[in-house]
UniProtKB/TrEMBL annotation, chain A:
One Pfam family cited in the UniProt record for this chain: ABC_tran
Keyword ATP-binding among UniProt keywords: yes
Name the record gives this protein: ABC transporter ATP-binding protein
Entry-linked CDD domains: ABC_MJ0796_LolCDE_FtsE (cd03255)
Molecular-function GO term, any one: ATP hydrolysis activity
Family according to the record: Belongs to the ABC transporter superfamily. Macrolide exporter (TC 3.A.1.122) family.
Gene3D superfamilies named in the record: P-loop containing nucleotide triphosphate hydrolases
Keywords: ATP-binding, Nucleotide-binding, Translocase, Transport
Coiled-coil region: none
UniProtKB/TrEMBL annotation, chain B:
Claim: Acetylation is one of the keywords in the record: no
Protein name in the entry: ABC transporter permease
Transmembrane region(s): 21-43, 281-300, 329-352, 372-395, 420-440, 670-691, 719-738, 750-773
Protein localization: Cell membrane
Name of a matching Pfam family: FtsX
MF GO annotations: transmembrane transporter activity
Keywords recorded for this protein, A-Z: Cell membrane, Membrane, Transmembrane, Transmembrane helix
Domain MacB-like periplasmic core: 20-227
Length: 226, 790
């Protein structure tokens, strides 16, 4: 599904190249649950952002679903966001002015999905995540864990084939974090959604089936979890 | 999506009530100011355009050269209309009319001094007033008829049908009411309450019957069949005087009716503008105010960009295009503009009566007027788009990765754009302060300039009816003084504060025979200088002691210097070709016409039998004014009981001379105030933004030991710099503009440093106050609040 070839990312500063990623080559297949780990500043988030097409690599090629997407125009990229990629952020990034319901609805509106279909999908998601009672609340009226649930529900609304999560539990207490990770695992196993997450926690990484260890921009280890 | 965006926009408004209030308030004031000014401009613009063929109608102007200058006015001989109608090709109608003047109209016990014109039938064809009753085709044929306006008819007859009822004209002729027309619109050059036939005028003033190309006594209006005839017609008009009277050097021209009001300033016989210049200033002001309100909106919206940035990032990550974000932000600005427009509408409705009262005009919102709504909605949409353009483009340009990673606002281009915007606002505000200050200085200067006589406690009584008799006036004079109501009484041949007769028919020894010099020509009574409070420079004034004074003449100082007479007393001048008059005294110059122009040369002759138009009296300073006035009214009534007493204070009528400049002053004061207020709101927005942006810096400084005062200085310094820059830019601009305005006056203040100092002072103080409102909060905040989120 994802094919990265010799991805490099550096920032040139007064002629000195500061490498963030060096020659990253890897393949991620449909249905995998990959955790990217490594110390602070290793380039984990940058790698995820490149996969999410939020950043462009300085060098190397990137194929998504067999298509070269290394540098994509805005229209095509948005097309991919609408149909294939769902983002989950550490800081949730819900839109404060929208209710839970509207937050989940927003991607569907952008995807131009009919109103009855929208309603049934949202109802389904609310039901599945046990947040039906919260649908008319605003994000600031929810706990962190609940906000992240909404964040995931929003990512799932467009029925993406892949979810990119940047430290999804970084701001959460451990009990809530466990709940979220269980949810990811379930989504991966039951719905076959590809998940790539960046995490600091060894424990969270264990929920997935593959771990990429990165240090100083280089993939040090690529382990399959049993 | 649209519905959701609308909902979000409303929630945003509600959530940030303070911001919304500033935003909407600023826009509403801007829009309301703009609309009121536009209403005013439209009001002035539509002067004399109520008539069906206004674009084909013309006013005949006369250019006359005298004293080396060309004088232009719409006064023409009575025979002009006939000549034009018969000899000029392409003329559909030509009419002669008197200018409106006060005439006594009586119906039963209702005695009303009304504004009346005498006109021929063509008059109502050229200016097709709307007839409510009566037939426009048959009116003004019979001598003893009258046309009333509807409100005047109501005044005379109440709710009764006035048609075929009779009124009395000047207590003499009985006139039949033939027709009732709608009231003359307030924005007409000719304002009157009734029209009477020209024949009646001729009947009363027998000299009118005789055609005389030398006597410019009425208004001539012309309507062309088609404007294609204009060039030829106007060309033929040029020499019309010469063709009919050999030695007449006057030149006639056709001036469009639609330009009569706004382009009334003539130089060298050509229209060079007039009130239109003032109107252009107001139009500019209207749009500048709206523009600052828009700038304000931009400032405030982009200042809040940090809050909105996250939303933009998220929306982009879940599949929003930039286009849809732009339309979302435009939707928000249009929504705010819509609310502001509604508010502006209320503001306009509430303030219009006050505004009308202030400017003595009649502005109304015409709800059935399509163009009005079109303008209103158009203005709203344009404002929404201008105001929303920068925020929409700026906010939608955020890259999701940057804002989602943790947004830090840099002192980037957007901040400098905002600075430029604020500087722009303050340039305008400072410029307005300077201009307003100079306008007021000029007004004060002219008002306080000696006018050559003492206005206070001076009253003027119109001579009407039976008072038109020298003996009666003499009697009244004695009675007034004996009663103790007045100390001095004299007479004058025209209204004391208005223009009047002038003549070029004066010859004297040493005069260049080819030069025509125009003199104001007035007749005065005895005891003139004492009454009006001026003095003789030399010689004596007219007095009953000198019965031969009919052969004497007085000059004012301006006349003496114009005539270049060394020892004027005793010299003889020739008046109107045959009268020899001896100069017996020189009167100090005093102002009767424009206060802004030098006093024109004037000659005075003694009042004859019945040529006194007004009695001028000085109230007794030792008496209670109201009882004096009551006594005066009483005495006048005794002599002429059939007329209402027409008495006024000279200083009140003198005030009217300042009307235009006062209006300009008042308007620039008010709207300048609004502009400054709106600019302040913009500054407040910038201050909010800066405070938010520098929260962390300030907190660190505080942790390092900076006091609140230190921080305030730090924050204010930047803004004072901006305001200072704005002032520096405003100075030359304002100087050029105000200098141009002043150059229109012969008497004017020299531009001093004061208005400029005032502009700097006021703008800096206002800026500091506005900024401190916000920065105090930041400076006093607990540093940990800002630092802990890092």
């Amino acid at each position: 599904m994802i094919q990265l070839n010799n991805i490099e990312k550096y920032y040139a500063n007064k002629g000195v190249k500061n490498y963030v990623l060096r020659l990253v080559t890897t393949t991620i297949k449909q249905g995998e649950f990959v955790s990217i780990m490594g110390p602070s500043g290793a380039g984990k988030s940058t790698l995820l952002n490149i996969i999410g097409m939020l950043e462009e690599p300085t060098y190397g090629t990137y194929e998504f679903l067999g298509e070269n997407v290394t540098s994509l125009n805005e229209r095509k990229r948005i097309e991919l966001y609408r149909n294939h990629i769902g983002f989950v952020f550490q800081a949730y990034h819900l839109i404060d002015e929208m209710t839970v319901y509207e937050n989940i609805e927003a991607p569907l509106l952008y995807k131009k999905i009919g109103s009855s279909e929208r309603a049934s999908r949202i109802a389904d998601l609310l039901d599945r995540f046990n947040i039906v009672a919260k649908k008319d609340l605003f994000p600031n009226q929810l706990s962190g864990g609940q906000q992240q649930l909404v964040g995931i529900a929003r990512a799932l609304a467009a029925q993406p084939s892949i979810i990119l999560a940047d430290e999804p539990t970084g701001n959460l207490q451990s009990a809530q974090a466990e709940e979220i990770m269980e949810l990811f695992k379930k989504l991966n196993q039951e719905d076959g959604i590809t998940i790539i997450q960046v995490t600091h926690s060894e424990k969270n990484a264990q929920y997935g089936n593959r771990i990429l260890h990165i240090a100083d921009g280089v993939v040090k280890e690529d382990i399959n979890v049993a | 999506m649209f519905k959701l965006n609308l909902k979000i926009a409303l929630r945003n408004l509600w959530k940030n009530k303070g911001f919304s209030l500033i935003n909407i308030g600023g826009l509403a004031i801007g829009l309301a100011s703009c609309m009121v000014l536009l209403l005013y401009v439209a009001y002035e613009w539509s002067y004399d355009k109520q008539f069906s063929n206004h674009d084909k109608s013309y006013v005949v102007y006369q250019n006359m050269e005298a004293s080396g200058k060309t004088f232009s006015w719409a006064w023409t001989p009575n025979v002009m209309a006939k000549e034009v109608q018969e000899k000029i090709p392409g003329v559909k109608y030509a009419s002669h009319t008197t200018y409106p003047r006060k005439q006594l109209i009586t119906a039963g016990d209702n005695k009303i001094n009304s504004n009346a014109v005498f006109a021929d039938q063509n008059f109502i064809k050229i200016l097709d007033y709307k007839f409510i009753e009566g037939n426009a085709a048959t009116v003004l044929k019979d001598v003893n008829t009258i046309i009333l306006t509807s409100s005047f008819a109501k005044k005379l007859f109440g709710n009764e049908n006035p048609i075929d009822k009779t009124v009395k004209f000047e207590n003499g002729d009985v006139l039949k009411v033939e027709a009732v027309i709608e009231d003359v619109p307030a924005n007409s050059s000719l304002i009157f309450e009734c029209i009477m036939p020209w024949a009646l005028f001729e009947k009363h003033q027998s000299w009118v019957k005789e055609g005389n190309w030398g006597n410019n006594m009425c208004l001539t209006l012309v309507q062309l069949k088609d404007n294609n005839f204009f060039t030829t017609a106007n060309g033929l008009m040029h020499d019309i005087y010469k063709r009919n009277q050999k030695d007449n050097t006057s030149v006639a021209l056709l001036h469009p009716l639609t330009k009569w009001h706004l382009y009334d300033d003539f130089q060298n016989g050509k229209s060079v503008g007039g009130k239109i210049d003032q109107l252009k200033i107001f139009l500019l002001l209207a749009f500048c105010i709206l523009l600052i309100a828009c700038v304000n909106f931009m400032n405030l919206s982009t200042a809040r960009s940090e809050r909105r940035a996250k939303e933009v990032g998220v929306r982009k990550a879940i599949g929003s295009t930039r286009k849809s974000l732009i339309s979302q932000f435009f939707l928000e600005s249009l929504l705010i503009t819509f609310i502001a427009t509604v508010l502006a509408f209320i503001l306009i409705e509430v303030s219009l009566p006050y505004f009308n009262n202030l400017l003595d005009i009649k502005l109304t919102i015409d709800y059935h007027n399509g163009p009005f709504w079109l303008t209103f909605v158009g203005l709203m949409v344009i404002t929404g788009f201008i105001a929303g353009s920068y925020p929409a483009l700026y906010l939608s340009s955020f890259e999701p990765i940057k804002v989602l990673k943790g947004f830090t606002l840099k002192t980037d281009s957007s901040a400098s754009v905002r600075k430029v915007l604020v500087v722009g606002q303050f340039v305008f505000a400072a410029g307005l302060i300077i201009c307003t200050a100079v306008i007021y200085q000029q007004l004060n200067y002219v008002k306080n300039k000696p006018i050559g006589y003492d206005q206070s406690n001076l009253i003027q009584i119109a001579v009407v009816g039976r008072m038109n008799d020298a003996a009666k006036i003499e009697l009244l004079k004695t009675q007034l003084i004996e009663a103790g109501a007045t100390t001095n009484v004299t007479t004058f041949s025209t209204d004391f504060t208005e223009g009047g007769d002038n003549t070029t028919g004066i010859e004297w020894e040493g005069k260049n025979p080819n030069e025509k010099i125009s003199f104001n020509h007035r007749n005065i009574g005895y005891d003139f200088t004492e009454t009006i409070g001026t003095k003789m420079i030399s010689g004596r004034e007219f007095s009953a002691k000198f019965p031969n004074d009919t052969a004497s003449v007085l000059l004012n100082e301006a006349a003496v210097s114009m005539m270049q007479l060394k020892n004027p007393i005793g010299k003889v001048i020739t008046f109107w070709g045959d009268k020899k008059l001896t100069i017996v005294g020189i009167v100090k110059d005093f102002v009767v016409e424009s206060v802004y122009q030098r006093v024109a040369p004037m000659i005075f002759r003694v009042n004859g039998k019945d040529d006194a138009r007004v009695i001028i009296a000085r109230l007794n300073p030792n008496q209670n004014i109201s009882s004096s006035l009551a006594k005066i009214d009483d005495l006048v009534k005794q002599i002429e009981p059939n007329y209402p007493v027409n008495r006024k204070f000279v200083n009140e009528s003198f005030e009217i001379k300042f009307k235009n400049e006062k209006l300009l002053g008042t308007l620039s004061n008010w709207f300048g105030g609004f502009a400054i207020f709106i600019s302040c709101l913009g500054l407040l927005g910038l201050a909010l933004f800066m405070a938010e942006q520098r929260k962390k810096e300030i907190s660190i400084r505080k942790v390092l030991g900076a006091s609140t005062a230190n921080i305030l200085t730090l924050l204010n310094k930047d803004f004072i710099k901006l305001v200072a820059i704005a002032n520096i830019i405003a100075f030359p601009l304002a100087y050029v503009i105000i200098n141009k305005w002043l150059s229109g006056f012969e008497y004017r203040v020299s531009i001093s440093a004061l208005p400029f100092v005032a502009a700097v002072g006021i703008s800096v103080i206002i800026a500091v106050l506005t900024v401190s409102l916000q920065s105090v909060k930041v400076a006093k905040a607990n540093p940990i609040d800002a630092l802990k989120y890092e």
